[in-house]
Amino acid sequence: MSAHHLAPPFAILRHTALLITGALILVPFVWMVSLSIKPPGEIFRAGFSLWPEQFYGVENYTRALTKAPLPQYMLNGVIVCAMIVVLQTFVCAPAAYALAKLEFPGRNLLFAMVLIALILPHEVLSLPLFILGYQLGILNTYAALIFPYVVSPFGIFLFRQFFKTIPDDVVHAARLDGLSELAIVWRIMVPMALPAIIAFGIFSIVSHWNSLFWPLIAVRDQSLMPPPLGIMAFKNDEAGNDYGPLMAASTLVVAPLIIAFLSAQRWFVEGMTGGAVK
Amino acid sequence: MRNIHLNHITKSFGSTRVLRGVSLAIEDGEFVTLLGPSGCGKSTLLRILAGLEVQDSGSVTIGERSVDGVRPKLRDVAMVFQSYALYPHMTVAANMALPLRVRRLSAWQRLPILRWIVPGTRRVSSEIEEEITRTAKALGIGHLLSRKPGQLSGGQRQRVAVGRAIVRHPAVFLMDEPLSNLDAKLRVQMRAEIKDLHRRLGVTFVYVTHDQAEAMTLSDRVAVMLDGELIQVAPPQEIYSDPDDRRVAEFVGSPKINLLEGVVRERGSVDAAGTNFHLLSDAPPGAALALGIRSEAFHLSECGGANTLTGAVRLIEHMGSDLFVHLAIPGSEHPVIARLLPERAPHIASGQTLHLGVRPERLLLFDADGKRLRPDNRENDNVLRMKEHA
Amino acid sequence: MSIAASSLEDEAGSASVTPAARKALRHQRIAETLAAWSLAGPALILLVVLFFLPVFAVFLVALTDWQFGATSLAFVGFGNFEELFADQGFRASFVNTIVYVVIVVPGTIVLGLVIALLIESGKSCRAFYRAVHFLPFMATLTAMAIAWEALLHPTIGLVNQTLAGFGLPTANWLRDEATVLPVLAVIGIWQNLGYAMVLFLAGLKSIPQDLYDAADIDGADLWLDRLRTVTLPMLGPVTMFVFIVVALKAFETFDTVQILTQGGPGHASEMLLFTLYRESFQYLRTGYGASVAVVFLAIVVALTLIQARVMDKRVHYQ
Question: Nearest residue of B to residue C31 by CA position?
Answer without folding.
Answer: B69
